[in-house]
Amino acid sequence: MRITRFSDIGLRVLIYLAGADQQRSPATVGEIAKQFDVPVNHLVKVVGQLARVGWIQALRGRHGGLRLNADAAALRIGAVLRELEGDAELVDCEGQQCCLSQNCILRGALAAGLRAFYDAMDRYTLADLIGGSVGEQIIVMHRNFLRPQEQNSKSS
């Protein structure tokens, strides 16, 4: 099984926002797009979905940006993936003619595998993903991104 690029980006946004030093300044779509080399228009769609669910807060204006709006220690990765991927079956047995459908156990086996995947992902929280050096790296990335902006505002 593979997760979609949409979910991959969604997880990266949540990880970045959970690890960024947001007391200093919220992250922006442009910043995250640059950090992860993601097209801005695709990122905007992901951010929109994360905001609709309530996991992030998107603030407009001069001092706006993106902030994590969820408890990183309570947000389960399985829940994130269920929301972003949807809970659809891996194969569409109803949408196609198949001469094996009367006796096939593939549908049930794939459903069991998908449940096992989500159960395994539910063992991890967003806080788990930013532990240790990953969280430290994100703080450095965020601060390094902000540094040129701060220098420009001081020289103006």
UniProtKB/TrEMBL annotation:
Keywords: DNA-binding. Signal peptide: none annotated. InterPro entries: Tscrpt_reg_Rrf2 (IPR000944), WH-like_DNA-bd_sf (IPR036388), WH_DNA-bd_sf (IPR036390). Pfam families: Rrf2. The keyword Cytoplasm does not apply. The keyword DNA-binding applies. GO terms for molecular function: DNA binding; DNA-binding transcription factor activity. NCBIfam families: rrf2_super (TIGR00738). This is Rrf2 family transcriptional regulator. It comes from Noviherbaspirillum saxi.
